[in-house]
Amino acid sequence: MAVSTEPAPVGTVRAHHGEGAVWDAADGTLLWIDILGRCVHRTAPDGTTTTVGLPDDVGFAVPQEGGGLLVGAGRAVLSVGLPEDGVAQVVDTPAGPVALRTNDAGTDPAGRVWFGTMDRAEEEAVGALYRLDGPGRATPVLHDLSVPNGPVWSPDGTTMYFTDTPTGRIRAYAYDAATGELGAGRVAVDTQGREGHPDGMTVDAAGNLWVAFWGGGAVRCFSPEGALLDEIRLPVAQPSRPAWGGPDARTLYVTTSRKGLDADALAGQPQAGRLFAVVPGVDGHVPPPAVRLSDDA
């Protein structure tokens, strides 16, 4: 595909709070969610989109080995069969002092799913980052989070990147892909002073980090050492998560949101909530699908 640095809308869906882009290589489509619209979209490169509704706010959707999805809905993680194989609960995270929901997820090189929880009202730092260890088994690893985003892994699987968005810092943790254990952490990118706040992210084949900046109208690329390498501007203020996809993993898809925008703001950015695609001219990296869980996992 030819290089194009100008993001173009894909399909016709306009989400209220678009998020969670992830490429399903087995199906050749992009999965993305509308958190407040309570649905999962599956969009082909030509823009054709099918939609599945869920019973609660959707925090993430990732493809499973062998078909179907793992979906965060409310506090729970669900196994969703497609097109009509039903919905089953995998795990329900603990209730907290305020109403919680899932937010963002990623699969590590071994296919383990990590996902966050957060205060639905976005007021209290009571969320956590969980590792899904099997049916009914979600292990909290990081605590006292406000708006968890990521995690994503370096292509060699030795580093996990993660941000609690309001902090303005993206952290890198040493990672043991064999055991799923986190090691020492450090600040990989300090985004304070840049326009917007770090939201969802992905890595390319070279290990560089591509980050959506909520309120900043851009996706920015950083080296593993934190140097700014590139910036892609979008015609909307609230990009939420980038993901590599397409048959050659060189298309960067970006979800966006119109959450909280008033009539004047929407008039100035009528494409808010659309899915965009851009081809920056680098090789991307697509994470593996989630391993299919069993009781002895």
Describe the structure.
There is one protein chain. The protein is mainly β and 297 residues long. The protein has a single domain, classed as TolB, C-terminal domain (Neuraminidase), CATH 2.120.10.30. It is globular. 47% of the residues are buried.
Topology:
Blueprint: E1 4-10, E2 18-24, E3 29-34, E4 39-43, E5 49-53, E6 58-63, E7 69-73, E8 76-80, E9 87-92, E10 100-107, E11 113-119, E12 127-134, E13 137-145, E14 148-153, E15 159-164, E16 169-176, E17 181-190, E18 197-203, E19 209-214, E20 218-222, E21 228-233, E22 239-245, E23 251-256, H1 263-268, E24 275-279
**Based on CA inertia axes, which overall geometry fits?**
globular
| Helix content percent band | under 10%
CATH superfamily: TolB, C-terminal domain
What would you report as the Rg, rounded to the nearest angstrom?
Answer: 17 Å
Q: Report the order of strands and helices.
A: EEEEEEEEEEEEEEEEEEEEEEEHE
Strand order of the largest sheet: 1-24-23-22
Q: What is the count of structural domains?
A: 1
Question: Number of helical runs?
Answer: 1
Q: How many runs of DSSP E, i.e. beta strands?
A: 24
Question: What is the typical, i.e. mean, pLDDT?
Answer: 95
Strand content: over 45%
Question: What does this entry show, briefly?
Answer:
The chain has a single domain, classed as Neuraminidase, CATH 2.120.10. 2% of the residues lie in helices and 53% in strands. It has one helix at 263-268, and strands at 4-10, 18-24, 29-34, 39-43, 49-53, 58-63, 69-73, 76-80, 87-92, 100-107, 113-119, 127-134, 137-145, 148-153, 159-164, 169-176, 181-190, 197-203, 209-214, 218-222, 228-233, 239-245, 251-256, 275-279.
